[in-house]
Amino acid sequence: MSLAYPPAKDYLLSASLDETIRIWNVSTKREIASTKTHEGGAGMIRIVPGGRLVSCGNDNLVRLWDLPAYLTK
């Protein structure tokens, strides 16, 4: 449903109808991390200042994620 690609970074984020947000390593094309998010699907993701991620979904919720925590796993 949505992709976010931060400038000068080697990862890509995806939001999907399978209710997940996934972080992908662009070089290796492998998943770094994933988390179950919005019931009914994650519709939109955006990276905001401070390295955080905002998502909204079919459950009518907006969530703020601490992206650096997922990248260090």
Brief account:
With 73 residues, the chain is mainly β. It contains one helix and seven strands.
Which helices and strands, and how do they pair?
Layout: E1 2-4, E2 11-15, E3 20-25, E4 30-36, E5 42-48, E6 52-57, E7 62-66, H1 67-71
Antiparallel strand pairs: 1-2, 2-3, 3-4, 5-6, 6-7
Give a structural overview.
This protein has one helix at residues 67-71; strands at 2-4, 11-15, 20-25, 30-36, 42-48, 52-57, 62-66. The protein is mainly beta. It has one domain (2-71): Thrombin, subunit H (Beta Barrel). A hairpin with a 3-residue loop joins strand 5 and strand 6. The longest helix has 5 residues, at 67-71. The model has no long low-confidence stretch (mean pLDDT 86).
Can you give the helix content as a percent range?
Answer: under 10%
What is the tally of helical segments?
Answer: 1
Number of domains: 1
Shape: globular
Give helix and strand order, one letter per element, not per position.
EEEEEEEH
CATH architecture: Beta Barrel
**Whole-Å distance between the termini?**
25 Å
Mean pLDDT, all residues: 86
What's the story with the biggest beta sheet?
4 strands, antiparallel
Cα gyration radius (Å): 11 Å
Strand percentage:
over 45%
**Uncertain parts:** none
Structural class: mainly beta
CATH C-level name = Mainly Beta
The CATH topology: Thrombin, subunit H
What topology, given as strand order, has the largest sheet? 1-2-3-4
Overall strand count: 7
